[in-house]
Amino acid sequence: MTNLLRIYVDSSTKPSNGTKYGESSAAWGFQWDNGTVFWRGGAVYLRHAGPNKMFYEGVIRALESALPDVNNGSGDRLEVYGDCQTVINQLNGVWRVGQLRKHYDRVRAVERKIKKRVTYHYLGETDATYKKVDILSKQGRDLFSRLLK
Q1: Residue 118 CB-half CA count within 13 A
Q2: d(CA 105, CA 146)
Q3: How many domains does the chain have?
Q4: Burial of 20 by CB count in 10 Å (0-12 exposed, 13-18 middle, 19+ buried)?
Q5: Strand pairing partners for 26?
Q6: What is the DSSP secondary-structure string of 46-97?
Q7: Is 103 helix (H, G, I), strand (E, B) or coil?
Q8: pLDDT below 70 — which residues of the chain?
């Protein structure tokens, strides 16, 4: 039996202090193919990071936190889902990477550590599990914003 681990990633960015990308966060959640959902990591926060850069950060952190599960035999395949069409298409080789090359290369480096097949899928915001991750990314951004003021 294949153990499929689905990883849902979302990023949230909002202007702050007159800048286009003032505060950003990303969150991720895991779901096994049997429907079990668990959260690990939560959110990462950066200032002045656009949505694509922040989504890449979320993918990187999510893959890193999946390493123990997939490398101890718990997972055979990983599927990463998100609503950032630019990053998903770059990771799938559909669009050129350009300015985000450093982040793209970091994802590929983590993938090599995983040693399992990782696929990337665009997911609209209507999926129930994805909605939870979307809420977490916004709450994380707002929480960090308040803590750092």
Answers
A1: 25
A2: 32
A3: 1
A4: exposed
A5: 11, 44
A6: EES--HHHHHHHHHHHHHHHHHHHHHTTS-SEEEEEES-HHHHHHHTTSS--
A7: helix
A8: 1-2, 16-22, 35-48, 73-75, 129-130, 137, 140-149
Domain containing residue 68: 4-144
Report field, pTM of the whole predicted structure over 0.85: no
Does residue 21 sit within a domain?
yes
Under DSSP, is residue 105 helix (H, G, I), strand (E, B) or coil? helix
In one-letter notation, the amino acid at residue 52 is: N
> Which pair of structure tokens corresponds to residue 146?
């308040």
Note whether residue 149 is domain-resident: no
CA-atom Rg of the chain in angstroms: 15
Give Cα 77 to chain centroid, integer Å.
16
Domain CATH for 46: 3.30.420.10
Q: Is residue 116 part of a domain?
A: yes
120 forms beta bridges with 80
Q: How far is residue 95's CA from residue 85's CA, in Å, rounded to a whole number?
A: 10
